[in-house]
């Protein structure tokens, strides 16, 4: 197997790993929701939630189950949610070459590759350990 083939396989495995991690995170979120709703139902509160309240709670907090790809373009709000960084910190880190660069979509619109942000987060976690 040559170097090019090895790199292609590693890239493919990285993509599978990122998709799997995202799916696991979504499933863990759903399990927490189920647990919360069951606890709410089991509680001895006088005012028990009705079906419509629970349905609304689930619909409002349901994460997107759309499959994601490292090549997905994500907007600034999602980057902020993923990293916990403020807008100004993101742009300062980009200026200092410490954060993935955004991609200009139009005159007033930018996005980032999901995989770049996930890799940046993974690198931060790895350097912490």
TrEMBL record:
Q: Name one Pfam family in it.
A: Phage_AlpA
Q: What is this protein called?
A: AlpA family phage regulatory protein
* Residue runs in coiled coils: none
| InterPro entries registered for this protein in UniProt | AlpA, Prophage_regulatory_activator
PANTHER family of this UniProt entry?
A: DNA-BINDING TRANSCRIPTIONAL ACTIVATOR ALPA
Per its UniProt entry, which superkingdom is the organism in? Bacteria
Q: Which organism is it from?
A: Pseudoalteromonas spongiae
